[in-house]
């Protein structure tokens, strides 16, 4: 049976890494600007949380629309990516120019919706390109590593300049406008250069490039991976609370920011090396069954479980982190590659021909539900179970009893949620050992390699 060899140009591969970097930068810019929004716009904590929620829901919900468009676009995925970049750029520029709360919400919706096109685009490129697809865990991991690098740069630059006066305006306004114009400028090379070529391959194919029978939404593996996605969000959720825990423990805002940076640097390192190791294990151990990929993921999750316990189990004294705390935070960051290098390739393996839509739905299933439940659960546990006390006092003015009580409440709630859901994540991989082979659309190619 004839099949096509798909090759994306070198320019296309470079561009999707640039866009992944910009996505990471933009995603963390919102969190980095929260204090600046509060002081410059006079927004309350509840309004700030609504802003964050609107962008998050737009990011996840509209991703499914981009998934449909990507699967329908065929050779014109550059058109879809360009449209998303234009929306994101316009959203950024408008955000930098407005002070109206309703307009801010609209711009956040526009910004999140445009930004949500990035993951479906580079996932589709990796899946379609004949060369990249052979090492999809490696290339998904590399894209995620570049994404995390964007987060690190955002953390340092935006945090540094957000509250400064630059040319008569708050720095965050200038940052958003400049990044918005960069999105608009980069849309042109993406439109012109993110292209592919197809050559006919007359060699017999056993069906690895054809969609196999059942649609992805009827497959057990796809829905189990949705639950995996939910549980895999826990390290990203607890990281925000972990910063708060470190601040209560006596760390300055600057040092708390460095904590996040160390985790993200670990994520950059883990995404590149982890993707390579996942591919090596997958190719050497029952590839058609996925045993290598799944076993490696469970081992990494066990290391993550140990890191959560070690970081949080013993209180921090004197407001100072020791060398082993930094090592634990770095290794914790290294383990974050599992979602990109293991979970995404499994989802694309069971959704041949509809990879972008399947990945978008998978992100919605796990992302929206985790956003709506995990943070409130951590907050309720801290307050109702472990005695967290709400206060409007500054850290330095807080009584030692209140501060240490809140430290312990945050610590215990984070340990509870972090360890339980990491174990749940590991358990969810077990049924995939049995369902993956039957649901894998590439199983015939795997057997022949």
What report would you give on this structure?
About 2% of the residues have low confidence. This protein has a two-stranded antiparallel ribbon with strand order 1-4. The two termini are 17 Å apart. It is mostly helical. The protein is built from 19 helices and four strands. It folds into two domains: 192 residues, Up-down Bundle (Growth Hormone, Chain: A); 237 residues, Growth Hormone, Chain: A (Up-down Bundle), CATH 1.20.1250.20.
Please provide a brief summary of the model.
GO terms for molecular function: transmembrane transporter activity. The protein is mainly α and 449 residues long.
Please tag this protein with its features.
449 residues, Growth Hormone, Chain: A, 2 domains, two-stranded antiparallel ribbon, 19 helices, globular, MFS, transmembrane transporter activity, membrane, MFS_Efflux_Transporters, MFS_dom
The helix/strand class is: mainly alpha
The overall pLDDT average reads 82
User: In the CATH hierarchy, what is the class of the largest domain?
Assistant: Mainly Alpha
Record field, number of beta strands: 4
- The general outline is globular
Report the C-alpha radius of gyration, rounded: 22 Å
CATH homologous group name of the largest domain: MFS general substrate transporter like domains
- Identify low-pLDDT runs: 202-212
Helicity range: over 70%
Instruction: Give the distance, in angstroms, between the N- and C-terminal Cα atoms.
Output: 17 Å
Q: Sheet bearing the most strands, described?
A: 2 strands, antiparallel
In percent, how much strand structure appears in the residues?
Answer: under 5%
CATH fold-level name of the largest domain: Growth Hormone, Chain: A
Order of helices and strands: EHHHHHHHHHEEHEHHHHHHHHH
Number of domains: 2
Compute the number of helices.
19
Oligomer state of the chains in this structure: single chain
* Spatial ordering of strands, largest sheet: 1-4
CATH architecture of the largest domain: Up-down Bundle
